[in-house]
Structures are given as structure tokens and as C-alpha cells.
Write a structure and sequence with these properties.
Keywords: Membrane, Transmembrane, Transmembrane helix. It is built from five helices and no strands. It is an all-alpha fold.
Length: 133
């Protein structure tokens, strides 16, 4: 039980780092004009509220790292990040009125979301690798 609790807290912490990575990647893509260049209307402002929400939800999503994946930490980070990206694209953003895959924000919105989630997933997976997990 103690080992499971330890793994749970380490995965939550890795998810928090992943949430921070996601938030900063999405902000950087908007701030430096990548989203405008690809025709996507996403350019969040960097604020405490913006970061806090994504860090906490990143921690919750970090529990995905409990799944047994022992091959490449880079592949683990990328492929497991597709789960939160799918939830964003096919559940949360459509519920906010952006349509399926949030295409109302631009045709390449799925690309932007997948890239931002991948940055977070790889950051979280890297932390787990550094912890020996």
C-alpha cells in the first residue's frame, strides 16, 4: 500500500509539471505567433488563474502515468498525452461551444492542442524518468 501511495503522489507531481509544460507551451505558441501563423484563434494570457487551473488538472491527468509503460519515456510522454488531448478536443472544448475538435477556433486546432499536450506529457514523463519510474 505504501508503494502505491508513493507512486500515486509521484505521478500526480509529474502531472503537475506536465500541466505547467502544457500551459507554457500553449502560451508560447500564442505569444510568439505560431497559432496565428497556422490560423488558430488561441492566444492565452499568462496569469496565475491560467496556470493554476492547468497545473491542478495536469496533476489529475498525471495519474495516467500509473499505466504500465516501461519502454521509452519519450514515447510514453507523447502517447499518453493523447488521452488528455482527446478529452479536450472531443469533450471539453465542444462543451464550451467550439464544435467538434474545436474546429471553430481554426482548422489546425487539433494540431496545436496535441503539440501543447505532448510538451506537457513529455515533461511529466521526463520527471518520472529522473525519479527512476
Amino acid at each position: 500500500m505504501r508503494e502505491f501511495t508513493r507512486n500515486l503522489s509521484v505521478c500526480f507531481a509529474a502531472g503537475c509539471l506536465g500541466g505547467l509544460g502544457y500551459a507554457l507551451a500553449l502560451w508560447a505558441m500564442g505569444h510568439y505567433g505560431f497559432t496565428r501563423w497556422v490560423g488558430v484563434d488561441i492566444a492565452p494570457y499568462l496569469s496565475n488563474a491560467y496556470l493554476y487551473q492547468r497545473i491542478v488538472w495536469g496533476g489529475v491527468c498525471g495519474l495516467i502515468f500509473l499505466l504500465p509503460w516501461r519502454r521509452s519515456w519519450l514515447a510514453r510522454g507523447f502517447f499518453l498525452s493523447l488521452i488528455p488531448a482527446g478529452v479536450l478536443l472531443f469533450l471539453l472544448l465542444p462543451m464550451r461551444g467550439y464544435g467538434p475538435a474545436a474546429l471553430a477556433l481554426g482548422m489546425l486546432t487539433p494540431l496545436v492542442i496535441v503539440l501543447a499536450c505532448a510538451a506537457g506529457g513529455i515533461a511529466g514523463s521526463g520527471l518520472l524518468r529522473a525519479q527512476g519510474k
